[in-house]
Design goal:
Pfam families: TrkA_C (PF02080), TrkA_N (PF02254). With about 550 residues, the protein is of the alpha/beta class. About 40% of the residues lie in helices and about 20% in strands. Helix 5 links the parallel strand 4 and strand 5.
Length: about 550
């Protein structure tokens, strides 16, 4: 919340923040200039006091927008529905963890913007890990898209944006055909161009090896010695053949019992020795059972089965498998990059994703040297320390730096001042804040500003953005295809009022007020589109 309030206040917005009094940012938010209301639970009366107070006469709320940043999706949805009942026209911005639930909110709430922090932040961490600045990720037309070189983008490509190879002057938005040519394209994902040697989960074979650890081996060695010694005693002093002697000794040591007529004729001291050995065997069997049960049922089982097989190299180690870490795993897997996850919570969201993607996971504290060694940090190419704790990430980065000075390290840190000092003095690598990556998007949604992404194409640039057809503009009633300009503007998708985005729109259909367009264009082409889609001003009276 602190980052969002900072972004909004710096943009000139008047902000009322409802903050849990126990929050460590409570005082700091007030110092920024926001009006702070302390509350643990958001109620209808509290929202009314904060400015969500539309009345039955249609008078709008004094609040222009409501931003919900609770980590609990259910609480956010409940509060959003309450606010919508209070003011049907209020602009609501909701940060959601569950993307599926977020997609359903527009149908429930109307004028609603859903922000998914992990989806916005994860590509930045991946780019740091791979030192990859050739791709640009963006949200456009209700989809998560990527712009880059054609050989990097997964087919089918949505459109060709530019051709920078044909001449010294790049051709922007080349005329599309059945097989358009160009090297900068827009797509929905990244191709798997190469794949490092996969890092494979340990599996059951490796699990069995770890189950039979030193404790099991020591107990088994003692039992084997007793069986061997008992076999010799029974054979030499009981005049029983070897195989039968082995059977009797093993039965005594393993507490399986003795059932042999010839043994009844053995000397008394042999029988007493057999009883003592059998008692020892009972104790050893109990110990053996306890050790195996501990290995199979204890917390170590998750680490054993999900651990790393062999000695991986040139992989990426992701420390922290929360919602951001889960998305990072998905993107790295799409890129074909070998990856190992680390988290001390076996129920973390990313652990479930890792199991689904067959990514090995080491369960343990990422700031512990042995945990990082188990993940192969000493041979990896990059480490992402992205747990929820700044200190844990810092400790993990320091340990990883000691184990592998050549690894590229990126830390997730909320405290901006701490991050700057760590980067300057310790030289551990880059640091990023999820909240700082997400806050600008939330501030833009509050102000209903048109967000745009700049894509370089040689020495020229293209802009990708969304534009609304406003009532009273000359665009109303015109066919969609008339807006396209060769080399200047291309309409990519259309959203009818109250409908969903259509990425194969009918270009012959006329435009209506309220329609929203996803477009790519040059600065001049976009400027002409804005003049077309905005109401025409009446000439001034002379």
């Amino acid at each position: 919340m602190l980052r969002v309030v900072t972004e909004l206040v710096s943009s000139g917005e008047r902000v009322t923040a409802i903050v849990n009094p126990a929050s460590r940012h409570y005082d700091r938010i007030g110092e920024l200039g926001a009006t702070v209301m302390g509350a643990r639970v958001i109620s209808e009366s509290l929202l009314r006091r904060a400015g969500v107070d539309a009345d039955d006469d249609g008078k709008p709320s004094t609040a222009r927008a409501l931003v919900l940043l609770d980590n609990d999706d259910v609480h956010n949805v409940h509060t959003a529905l309450t606010a919508r009942d209070m003011d049907p026209d209020l602009r609501i911005i909701v940060q959601m963890v569950n993307p599926r639930l977020g997609k359903q909110l527009n149908s429930l709430l109307g004028d609603c913007v859903v922000i998914n922090g992990p989806w916005l932040a994860a590509p930045a961490f991946v780019s740091d890990a791979l030192e990859d600045d050739e791709l640009t990720w963006l949200d456009l037309g209700g989809r998560r898209l990527v712009v880059g070189q054609a050989d990097l983008i997964r087919e089918p490509h949505l459109t060709v944006l530019a051709d920078t190879t044909s001449s010294a002057t790049p051709e922007l938005l080349p005329v599309t055909s059945a097989d358009p040519e160009g090297d900068i394209v827009l797509g929905t994902g990244v191709r798997t161009l190469w794949r490092a040697r996969d890092v494979r989960p340990a599996g059951w074979l490796m699990a069995m090896r770890d189950i039979f650890d030193s404790r099991v081996r020591k107990i088994a060695a003692v039992m084997a010695f007793l069986v061997a010694a008992g076999t010799g005693v029974v054979h030499f002093f009981g005049n029983i053949e070897w195989w039968r002697a082995l059977y009797l000794a093993a039965g005594v040591v393993t507490s399986a019992g003795i059932d042999d007529d010839k043994f009844n004729d053995a000397a008394p001291w042999v029988k007493v020795s057999a009883v003592l050995v059998q008692l020892t065997g009972i104790v050893l069997m109990a110990l053996l059972t306890a050790v195996v049960v501990d290995s199979l049922i204890g917390a170590r089982l998750s680490r054993i089965i999900g651990g790393v097989r062999g000695r991986p190299r040139n992989h990426v180690v992701v420390c922290g498998l929360g919602t951001v870490g889960a998305r990072v795993l998905e993107i790295l897997t799409e890129r074909g990059v070998a990856v190992v996850g680390v988290d001390q919570d076996e129920d973390a969201p990313g652990v479930q994703v890792a199991h689904r993607l067959k990514i090995p996971v080491v369960i343990g504290d990422s700031s512990n040297e042995e945990t990082l060694r188990s993940a192969g940090v000493q041979r990896c190419q990059s480490v992402l320390a992205i747990t929820d704790g700044d200190i844990t990430n810092l400790e993990s980065a320091m340990v990883a730096g000691d184990l592998n000075p050549e690894a590229r390290i990126t830390m997730r840190m909320f405290d901006h001042d701490l991050a700057q000092r760590v980067e300057r003095r310790l030289g551990l690598g880059h640091s990023r804040s999820v909240s700082m990556l997400v806050a600008p998007a939330i501030a833009a949604a509050v102000a209903n500003r048109r967000s745009q992404v700049t894509v370089p194409a040689g020495r020229r640039v293209l802009l990708l953005t969304e534009v609304t057809v406003e009532d009273g503009s000359v665009a109303v009633g015109r066919r969609l295809g008339e807006l396209d300009e060769a080399g200047g503007l291309r309409v990519l998708a259309r959203q009818d009022v109250g409908g969903t985005w259509d990425w194969t729109p009918a270009y012959e259909r006329p435009l209506r007020a309220g329609d929203r367009l996803a477009v790519a264009g040059t600065r001049s082409g976009l400027a002409r589109l804005l003049m077309t889609t905005r109401p025409q001003q009446a000439p001034a009276a002379s």
